[in-house]
Specification:
Blueprint lengths: L20 E7 L5 E10 L3 E3 L19 E8 L5 E2 L6 E11 L18 E3 L2 E3 L1 E3 L5 E5 L3 E3 L3 E13 L23 E7 L3 E4 L6 E2 L4 H8 L11 E2 L1 E2 L5 E2 L9 H8 L2 H5 L24 H5 L4
Parallel strand pairs: 3-14
Antiparallel strand pairs: 1-2, 2-4, 4-5, 4-10, 6-8, 6-12, 7-11, 9-10, 12-13, 12-14, 15-16, 17-18
């Protein structure tokens, strides 16, 4: 029997209504109609599982390409006015991971006891960029997944208002996850398309950086850029070796390069103490060469 086909090429995936695009509307105290629109401009495509052992942090590979979500805010019933740049509020986007296919969990386990599969930096602040279009953007260059499988990312938008008149209208129905004394309010969420997380042996490698990644990097955002394709290949002995290193150095690589040989090995091989000159009688002399210069012939 043929499994149901997902529109994006994956079989038996859970269908969601807010994939790639999502919008929500609310009314303020002074009667303004505000509409929020989230769009996943750059979808995650692949990742290499980093595991959950002691060395998982040192051998972590981010999701490729880095997800980029666009935020636009409009005012008016027909979105007549773009107020993304003028809205007096702070925004951040929180990323969570969910299964893209139905999965059966072992008995006796729940969400709290299961190991966190998503690791890295799941929160991104809003940055205002002029390209590809004037809007607010959330960039996630440091997301990794511990276990292989098929997943999708869910991005939740939170807002911190600065003006009392921009708060929700009193007659609006409160959201179940919002409290009266909360400093931030959850507005909406958008989900990415499904992507595959491979094991280290099956990981096909990383592709060249996208034009969108280059574009945001040119505007000052911290995004890893690869100028060529980094695919897996086998060495002469037939063993697997990863060639998916990034062009920029990681923090650990920079630390290893900056450490001097004496300091890096001093913990296990202490340096011998310096010895002075020894005269014929066996008495140690000073290591200073000042006397040699003073006795030099004119």
């Amino acid at each position: 029997m043929e499994l149901p086909q997902h529109p994006h090429g994956f079989k038996n995936c859970i269908e969601v209504q807010n994939e790639t695009n999502s919008s929500a509307t609310r009314f303020t105290r002074d009667g303004k109609q505000i509409t929020y629109k989230l769009t996943v401009l750059q979808e995650p495509q692949r990742a290499r599982a980093c595991g959950s052992g002691a060395k998982s942090s040192a051998d972590r590979r981010p999701v490729d390409p880095p997800p980029i979500v666009e935020l636009k805010i409009y005012e008016g019933p027909n979105r007549e006015r773009d107020i993304t740049y003028t809205m007096s509020a702070n925004y951040f986007l929180f990323a969570t991971l969910e299964q893209a296919r139905p999965m059966a969990h072992p008995r006796g386990t729940d969400d709290k006891t299961r190991l966190t599969v998503l690791t890295g930096t799941p929160v991104a602040g809003l940055v205002y960029l002029d390209r590809p279009s004037p809007a607010g953007y959330f960039i996630f260059p440091d997301l990794s997944v511990r276990h292989e499988g098929m997943y999708r990312l869910s991005f939740s938008l939170y807002e911190e208002l600065k003006l009392p008149e921009d708060e929700d209208k009193a007659g609006d129905v409160p959201r179940p996850d919002a409290s009266s004394d909360a400093h931030v309010t959850h507005r909406l969420e958008v989900k990415s398309k499904p992507f595959i997380v491979y094991s280290a042996k099956k990981f096909p490698g990383l592709t060249e950086s996208t034009s969108l990644s280059r574009m945001v990097a040119e505007q000052g955002c911290r995004v890893r850029i690869r100028r060529d394709v980094r695919m897996r290949r086998r060495d002469a002995k037939g063993g697997d070796k990863d060639w998916d290193n990034y062009e920029d150095d990681t923090a650990q690589a920079r630390a290893r390069m900056s450490a001097t040989p004496e300091l890096s090995g001093s913990a296990h091989h202490p340096l011998p103490a310096p010895h002075g000159f020894v005269d014929a009688a066996g008495r140690p002399r000073s290591a200073s060469n000042a006397s040699h210069h003073s006795l030099a012939n004119p």
